[in-house]
């Protein structure tokens, strides 16, 4: 489908307009859910710069840029954040088990 001539949208529309052109309102809602999920994930403080970089990309996509040019780095950062979060939860579980065992010893 030729979006430019049939609908009046250019495929090079900037930022979130491009998501709307390709995927409609469902795409924007899915993107919002992804934003909330990625930005609320708990990670160790030494990796907070990853969240700052994602916030920079999210804000810069409001009025500029081609969204899919950043898709690989966004996927990699999301993967790292998810893996860090799962490790963070695992560390908390191990610490809690250790605390329970140390209470039973004393």
Uncertain residue ranges: none
Which structural class should the secondary elements be placed in? mainly alpha
Task: Write down the overall mean pLDDT.
Answer: 76
Helix content: over 70%
User: What is the tally of beta strands?
Assistant: 0
Keywords: Membrane, Transmembrane, Transmembrane helix
Transmembrane segments: 20-41, 48-68
Structure description:
The chain is mostly helical and 106 residues long. The protein has one domain (3-105). It has helices at residues 3-6, 16-39, 48-60, 71-105. The longest helix has 35 residues, at 71-105. It is elongated. The termini are far apart. The chain crosses the membrane at residues 20-41, 48-68. Keywords: Membrane, Transmembrane, Transmembrane helix.
Short description:
The protein has 106 residues and is mainly α. The chain has one domain.
Entry keywords:
72% helix, single chain, transmembrane, transmembrane helix, elongated, membrane, mainly alpha
Question: Could you outline the blueprint of secondary structure elements for this entry?
Answer:
Layout: H1 3-6, H2 16-39, H3 48-60, H4 71-105
């Amino acid at each position: 489908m030729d979006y430019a001539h049939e609908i009046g949208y250019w495929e090079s529309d900037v930022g979130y307009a491009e998501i709307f052109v390709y995927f409609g309102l469902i795409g924007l809602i899915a993107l919002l859910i992804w934003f909330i999920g990625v930005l609320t994930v708990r990670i160790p403080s030494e990796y907070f710069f990853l969240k700052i970089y994602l916030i920079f990309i999210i804000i810069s996509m409001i009025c500029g840029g081609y969204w899919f040019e950043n898709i690989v780095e966004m996927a990699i950062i999301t993967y790292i954040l998810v893996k860090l979060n799962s490790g963070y939860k695992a560390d908390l579980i191990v610490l809690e088990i250790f605390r329970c065992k140390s209470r039973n010893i004393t």
